[in-house]
Amino acid sequence: MGLTKTEIFTDKQNQIAQYAKVFGHPARVAILQYLFKLNACVCGDLVDEIGLAQPTISQHLKELKNLGLIKGNVEGTSVCYCIDVENWKKMKTVMSTFLDQDLNQKDCC
Amino acid sequence: MGLTKTEIFTDKQNQIAQYAKVFGHPARVAILQYLFKLNACVCGDLVDEIGLAQPTISQHLKELKNLGLIKGNVEGTSVCYCIDVENWKKMKTVMSTFLDQDLNQKDCC
DNA sequence: TTTATTCATTGCAATATTACGATTAAAGGG
DNA sequence: CCCTTTAATCGTAATATTGCAATGAATAAA
C-alpha cells in the first residue's frame, strides 16, 4: 500500500520518524552540512556544490523548509538559505531523547 | 526516477542517510523503543504491541537487522530480539557528529 | 522594453516503500 | 506421524520518493 499508518503511533513516534525521514537522503544531509560549514547564508551555489539538477535541489530544499530546519529569504533574483537555529535545537532535543535511550541492558541474545 | 544517486555523495553522508532512513518510519521507532523499554529480549509480542500485521512487522525487523541495530536469536519456534548495544553506540557516534554541528552562526536570514 | 538570471513549479517516468493475504519452513507437543 | 505455533518469505496492490526536462515568475541588467 505504500501508505504509512500514522494513526496507530504516538505523536512523538511520528515526529521522530518525520525528522529522521528528512535526513534519510544523502542530498539533504549534504545540503545541511554545507549550510553549517559556510556558517552563513547560501545564495545559490548549492546546485554547483551538490551534483544534482536545479529542480531536484529545489525540491529537497522545500522539504527541509517544510520541517522548519532551514529558512529562505529572497534577495533580488536569488534566494538565501540558512539553518533555522531555533528549530534545529528543538529537533536535536527530540532526536536525542530517542537516540540516548540506554542500555542498562546486557546482551541477552 | 526514484533512484537515489549515492555515487555523488561521501560515504559518511550515505551512512548518515542510511541510519536516518531506517528511523524514518514510526513502526521502526516504536519497535526500538519497545526493545529498550523491556530492557531484555522480546520473543514475539511485537505484533500485538504494535498494531501491524505479522508480515509487516517481520519486514521492519529485517531492515533493523540488516543495519545491525538489533539482533535476533532463534529459541524453539520463536525468535528473540534485542538491541545490538555495540552497533547502537556506533550509530549514535555517527548521528551525533551530524546533529551536533554547531552553530556559531547568527541568524542571517 | 528586451534579455538574462535565478529559483519555484509542473508533469512525468523510474524506482522504492509500505502493508498484508497466502504460503512456507521449522520446531514442539500430542 | 499429524497438528499447532511462530516467524520468514512470496506475491502483489497502493502509494511515496527521486530526478529531471520544460516551463513559469520575478527581479536585475542592458
Question: pLDDT average of chain A, as an integer?
Answer: 92
Write the CATH homologous superfamily of chain A.
Answer: Winged helix-like DNA-binding domain superfamily/Winged helix DNA-binding domain
Question: Which percent band covers the strand fraction of chain A?
Answer: 5-15%
Number of strands of chain A: 2
Give the % helix of chain A.
Answer: 40-55%
Q: What is the CA–CA distance across the termini of chain A?
A: 33 Å
What is the subunit arrangement here?
A: homodimer
- Write the element-wise H/E pattern of chain A from the N-terminal end onward: HHHHEEH
- Named CATH topology of chain A: Arc Repressor Mutant, subunit A
* CATH C-level of chain A: Mainly Alpha
CATH architecture of chain A: Orthogonal Bundle
Short précis:
Two copies of one chain form a homodimer. Chain A is mainly α and 109 residues long.
Describe this structure in words.
2 copies of one chain form a homodimer. Chain A is mainly alpha-helical. Chain A is built from 5 helices and 2 strands; from the N terminus they run H-H-H-H-E-E-H. Chain A has helices at 11-23, 26-38, 46-49, 54-66, 85-99, and strands at 70-75, 78-83. A two-stranded antiparallel ribbon of chain A has the order 1-2. Chain A is globular and about 55 Å long. Chains A and B meet through helix 1, helix 2, strand 1, strand 2 and helix 5 of A and helix 1, helix 2, strand 1, strand 2 and helix 5 of B. The first copy, chain A, binds a DNA duplex (30 and 30 nucleotides) through residues 1-5, 25, 27, 43-44, 47, 52-62, 74, 76-79.
